[in-house]
Amino acid sequence: MAKEFARAFYNSDKWKRCRAAYIAYRKGVDGGMCETCHDVPGYIVHHKTELNPHNIMDPEVALDFKNLKYDCLECHNKEHGKDVVAGLAEYDFSPDGQIIPRQSPPK
């Protein structure tokens, strides 16, 4: 969920157009694969330099392709330390509902 100061930006037409253009660009480069793991399709456009109240209106930070990455949700969450805290991304459920370690996808 976007931080309060960033809500208007992420709902803006400028960001939506930029995001769509970046995804189209990445699809042309490598089919839209995650730029971090390169194993699964991208899911979220990530700012390399995190947006904050001071730089969010700077187009070189907020809208420049050089500051964007197209990551899968797992890589994006790792970047933000989300699954490190929860640790749940390492587990799945078996068909009978038991918790089991997540299997790495074949490469």
Secondary-structure-based class equals: alpha+beta
Q: Rough shape?
A: globular
Any idea what the radius of gyration is? Answer: 16 Å
- Biggest pleated-sheet summary: 2 strands, antiparallel
What string gives the helices and strands in order?
HHEHEHHEE
Gap between N and C termini: 31 Å
Strand order of the largest sheet: 1-2
Poorly predicted residue ranges:
none
- Strand runs, count: 4
Count of alpha/pi helices: 5
Strand portion: 5-15%
- How helical, in percent, are the residues? 25-40%
Mean pLDDT: 84
Descriptive overview:
The protein has 107 residues and is of the alpha+beta class. It has 5 helices and 4 strands, in the order H-H-E-H-E-H-H-E-E. The strands form 2 sheets. It has a two-stranded antiparallel sheet. A two-stranded antiparallel sheet has the order 3-4. Strand 3 and strand 4 form a beta hairpin. The two termini are 31 Å apart. The model has no long low-confidence stretch (mean pLDDT 84).
Key descriptive features of the protein:
globular, alpha+beta, two-stranded antiparallel sheet, two-stranded antiparallel ribbon, 107 residues, 5 helices, 36% helix, single chain
Short account of what is shown:
The chain is α+β, with helices and mostly antiparallel strands and 107 residues long.
Topology:
Blueprint (H helix, E strand, L loop, with lengths): L6 H4 L2 H18 L13 E4 L11 H4 L5 E4 L1 H7 L2 H5 L4 E3 L5 E3 L6
